[in-house]
Amino acid sequence: MITQNSLQGLYKDVEEKMKRALATVTREFTEIRGGRATPALVENITVDYYGAATPLRQVAAITAPERNLLTVQPWDMKVVPEIEKAILKASIGINPIVDGKMLRLPIPPLTGERRQELTKVIHRMAEEARVSIRNVRRDSNESIKKLKADKQMSEDEAFKAQEQVQKLTDKYIAQIDGLVKTKEHELQSV
Q: What would the DSSP string read from start to end of 134-174?
């Protein structure tokens, strides 16, 4: 028979996988530009740093001194042209202004059409995360059914285990829905 400890291990594994899906969608949402400037918009852009593709956050300090402005202060001044090229190549709608030893990135206001496009992107990302969480649920339920079929778990235990997995699924899907509402509100506010 299966022990309570191994069931707890199963729940912990399920929850870890669901947390990873939530963390992924949260990170993706930070990279979508809302009404205000945030370093997350550019920190993962890769820069050619002496022949190695390096994330911008590893070669420069990125700050948001104003609501609609980012500044990028490279630690090595020789990399300024490479940072400028990388930002332009990223096609995020930001045109960097080289200001001596730093770059200024004015964030243009979002148009109504662009807000609608970004809202659709957010919903697509959220649905991918929900599908990922449901896949974790499906896999764990199959494991539970196999344990029941192998007579390592009673029918009642299997039912309770599946119920617990469903509670975890509902919890993480609700968190994703909350993220979507927050991000939509951020996009729609001017």
A: HHHHHHHHHHHHHHHHTTSS-HHHHHHHHHHHHHHHHHHHH
